[in-house]
Amino acid sequence: MAPRPTPPEGVSVALSRSLRHDMPLDTSPTARTTLDWDRLDDGKFADETVAVRRLLAAAPLAEAARDGVSAEAVALVKATRRAARRQGVVESFLQEYSLGAKEGLALMALAEALLRTPDEETRDRLIAEKITAADWASHAGRSDNLFVNASTWGLMLTGRLMDVEPEAKTDFPAYLRRLAARVGEPVIRAAVKQAIRIMGEQFVLGRTIEAALKRARREGVVCSFDMLGEGARTAADAARYEAAYAAAIETVGLASEGAGPERGHGVSVKLSALSPRYEAVQAARVWAEVYPRLKRLALIAARHDLNFCIDAEEADRLVLSLQLLDRLAREPELGGWTGLGLAVQAYQKRAPAVIEAVAALACSSGRRLMVRLVKGAYWDSEIKRAQVAGRPDYPVYTTKAATDLSYLVCARALIGAAPHLYGQFATHNAHSLAAVRRMAEQAGVAVEFQRLHGMGEALYQGAEAMYGPLRLRAYAPVGGHEDLLPYLVRRLLENGANTSFVHSLLDERVPAAAVVSDPVDAIAAAGGPGPHPRIAHPLRLYGEHRSNSLGVDLSVRAERERLARAVTALETALPLDAGGLGSGGAPPSTVSAGEAEAEAEGRSPVDGRLVGVTREATPADVDAAMASARAAQPGWDALGGVARGRVLRAVTDRLQADRDALVALLAREAGKTLADGVAEVREAADFCRYYAHLAETQFAGPETLAGPVGETNTWTPRGRGVFACISPWNFPLAIFTGQVAAALAAGNAVLAKPAEQTPLIAAEAVRRFRAAGLDPRLLALLPGRGETVGAALVARPDIDGVAFTGGTETAWRINQALAARRGPIVPFIAETGGLNGLFVDTTALREQVIDDVIVSAFGSAGQRCSSSRLLFVPHETADLLVEGLSGAMDALVIGDPADPATDVGPVIDEDARRALGAHLDRLRREAKVIRQLDPGPWAERGCYFGPVLAEIPSADFLEGEVFGPILHLVRYDPDDLAAVAGRLAARGYGLTLGVHSRIEAFAREVQRLVPAGNVYVNRSMIGAVVGVQPFGGQGLSGTGPKAGGPHALLRYAGERAVSVNIAAQGGDPALLNL
């Protein structure tokens, strides 16, 4: 190994010390690193304005240098336009089709799906839909590039471009239809596929590494080869990817002839390809599985002295990747090899700190590292993930100018860290190229530039014409065309916006000066540092009237440790007591000797430990609660919606403040995983905020209605009185809180009966309502069994409405009880179960289907009303999908829900497990069990039931909802879709429905055939968001209105219309004053 270098100038020794921990290198059972990489997460969600100000203060270029770089970049654009021998295929596509346009998206959707659609009939439908969906006439013939015209006209026949008839330029869809009628749709299908093949051949260097090397030699380019393919979903995927990487590295190494990592070819590796569970919460598996694979690959690369680059992936994986790099850099078996490297994404707010820390690693390990600086290719998914998960901010910059500035700051640090870091600068931007070249020249440091194969050719031709030879490497995809499009779409999204440099570089209509943008000037022109004005902050996603609830980032070690402390604190306080929350806050009446059996112990489904004790409410308790509620409700109703909204917003604050404790209790009492527990607290808070907003807007006072002159007409919603709210155990906090908040927001008092399995979490919710200032008389907790307490509430003649979530059978009984009462007819609001089907066609992306099916069927141990119960797959792709699903099931972790690594916890109780076991026995007798996971020792400790994948002949096989982690697969012939879907619809349920397809007409047809309250297309079927996806079904699945929807409160309210004849008072003043 090379001698240990001293820290380079510009690398903070203090930071190096701050990243160290005191453990010797070989004592950690997992990571064994010498730097505390988790500290980087302190800046993961930095305020963007503050972060950009720090970038500006870093001043990567002096004022005079900035002017010089801008002038040089303008000259570079002009030189590029003069020197360009040809425009790359991707630039041609981007210049003609922005991905913001319907045509560009249609082409990508068509190409991406055609490459993996096996049956000709579906291909024809796909082509017909996408080709006729947009305005092709405006593009036809405008580009000189063969692919763009071939895509536009769809006329590639056996590799030959047909002459274009005039009609194709004026009415392409009509022309294509007539052409299809004349030559046949199979010819058109072959034409479009050939057009796609042209693009694949130009963008992918080769289908195999041998072909790629041959082409690279022919074209005279040095490459970093990227083996195409999405992340592993199964252990078999991971083993296959490792074998492919190993073979590629060996082949490249044999061909390198000792060129070395700087001058020779290299290979890039995605760590997510080496394990189906490359996640921070699965660190133990990563170290046991990914690291040995990574080391084996690195040893091959080191033996051949190649550049071996660990690719950058999502922000949540950054720290884990660096920990692996740290340990790998210290491996003695790698000797003095200097080809090890990584990619750093400049769009991440942590990027400058990452460069500094990697430099410290190079110093402490004694190994020179190669660093590829990129801007980042996952921007859109990072933005969405932060919004959905309720992150405190974005991990990436929201403006292009900030990313460009971060790139320059990182570039300066990277150049300053030479020779300990070797800079590889991937850019297609003239300003970035000119700036980096100047910084490197001034520092006297040799650097490497990189471009994507198929992109940036013209820019670097211009650069070499202007500067002379550059050290240049092409990042080159290798693989089949079927793997191309997911990769390509990421690159096009990264580079293809109308404002992108790539889009306008060779467009002579755009002045060269307009193409070049100094990021400092761009930030100033936008009004100074700050986030993009049209991208809402993650916590302000829903506007000013309600915040997005804050989530927990389980990829951050400090967050996981904080939740662990909350679980420990709860366990020291067990058992809990749900008492003292009856009428007016007084404890329920004393239990007599004859009532002793009504006291129930709450045992955890995880391990049977005593969580708490609850005494069932007696008839006297119910009477007292009703009397208190009846006395307090008129005053609450009279307060009006605005005042009630303030109380509900205060409840939200209490829920958020106590989130960790509530998550811990959900894990122990209800068996919820930490991720599910966090989501549930967020949903409960969302309900309170959303209903507060509805109360403030819909119940603010009388609404004046239009009518004739001489009279006033008003409409006023008002509380009905006292509602009984009966909630389930599967969402013991969110649904309990949602029902209570809705009834209170509408002006009612509430008698709440929680599920008998989860009264403790309900009691905690009630305490938050009262701590927020709610009159205790307005909300009474009445725990107990459904057949006693629940039945007593429903039967009371003085109850003014019932809200219920639970099983269909129980809903029938409540409906019958309410109908049998002598007295007022009251509302019954019910959300029950469903036989939820997910339909897949042959155009669906396998990896996306696997991800969404696994979480939809087995997330929350299958104990969601919305969980997928049936999966309908076409015969053509069923076997491949079954193989993938079985492998993905094997990657699931069954265990303690308080462990962040756990995916599947217990079912709620022994009764639930017995029911699932009985159904499994039937499946074994009458159907086919494809895969069942063994819970192992957890089956003895608690109420665990391993997820099951079974094949059944049709939806008729199921007699009702199976509430647990059992997914039933049905194979179907696309020609029989109507009959197959009709059998599901005939069961009478209508809660959730899923569709995976790239054909919009298929999704519409499934929706027409199968009734459902919530439909999810190309995504999971669970996790409805309050105010975004209002939740509720129809038929046997519920009555409506939808929870979390704009009409949610109105069924809880009575209405009064008042008409006053003001003409009788002497006329209408408004009319007289015209």
Task: Kindly describe this structure.
With 1074 residues, the chain is an alpha/beta fold. The protein is built from 40 helices and 28 strands. It has an eight-stranded parallel β-barrel, surrounded by six helices. It has a seven-stranded mixed sheet with strand order 23-24-25-22-21-26-27, with helices on both faces. Strand 26 (992-996), helix 39 (1000-1009) and strand 27 form a beta-alpha-beta unit. The longest helix has 25 residues, at 674-698. The termini are far apart. Mean pLDDT is 87; it is low at 1-32, 96-105, 134-164, 495-499 and 585-597.
What Rg do the Cα atoms give?
32 Å
Proportion of strand residues: 5-15%
Amino- and carboxy-terminal Cα gap: 94 Å
Give the fraction of residues assigned to helices: 40-55%
Given helix and strand content, the structural type is alpha/beta
Instruction: Write out the strand line-up for the largest beta sheet, numbering strands in chain order.
Output: 3-4-5-6-7-8-9-10
The average pLDDT score comes to 87
Say how many strands there are. Answer: 28
- Overall outline: globular
The low-confidence runs, each spanning 5 or more residues with pLDDT under 50, are 1-32, 96-105, 134-164, 495-499, 585-597
Largest sheet: 8 strands, parallel, barrel
Number of helices: 40
